[in-house]
Amino acid sequence: MATLLSIVSLGTSLSTAIPLTVLANTKKPPPDQAPTSGRSSGSRGCGTTVASNSGLALILLSPTDSPAKTVLTRPTFAWFVRDNASVPMEFRLYERENNSYKLVKEIKGNTFKSTSGITVLTLALSAPSLEVGKQYRWQVALVCDSNRPSGNLFASSDIQVAPIQPSLKSQLERVRDNLGQAKLYAQENLLFDALGIVLKYPGNETQFKDFRLSLFNNITAHNPELQVLYNSTIRSVER
């Protein structure tokens, strides 16, 4: 059963679950083969000066419920990298078809590199939008050594696109500000979408910061990363 988290903002108390999906592996799968989704406590990095006991090297910012629910056909993906060294990254999105996975989007190249902190990825309009009712698996890989793929780190998580309820759609149309919309998603337990908003649009006002930080609170399984997440820089990219 998922750990409970209390989200408190503007006098509203929401009881919901949001332990983060934390995944790490030390063997990079072929691009056309989706990695197994699961949890790991591995902490191996890419050989930087950061001590291995300082926490996990790669954290996908996604609820542990599998698959996580989204009502967006162009959702936002976010992850945290602990290591200070900049290494090539690879992002892949797979569509589930029966018991197999088909690669639908791949991002890599010399200009797509990791930075210490939180990276927020928005897919370009040229990328295919997701389809309601379908399940997807997204993967982030840190290419520690291009000549030794078995030493690379990767993490993956599942999402499923659900139809948006008319009542939620109506409320979102009336509430235009980012913080208000994030709260509406959280109230409907659409935590993947709530996280996407507060990370993509990192407001500086106190109420916005408090709400964003509350989404990271009470992550009891990985306490070493809490303070780092709180103080992380947030970088937004579109590919």
From TrEMBL:
Q: Does the keyword Signal apply?
A: yes
Q: Give the residue range of the signal peptide.
A: 1-24
One matching Pfam family, short form? DUF928
Location of the region described as Disordered in the Swiss-Prot/TrEMBL record: 24-48
The record's keywords, sorted A to Z, are: Signal
Q: Where is the composition biased (Low complexity)?
A: 36-48
- This one is known as DUF928 domain-containing protein
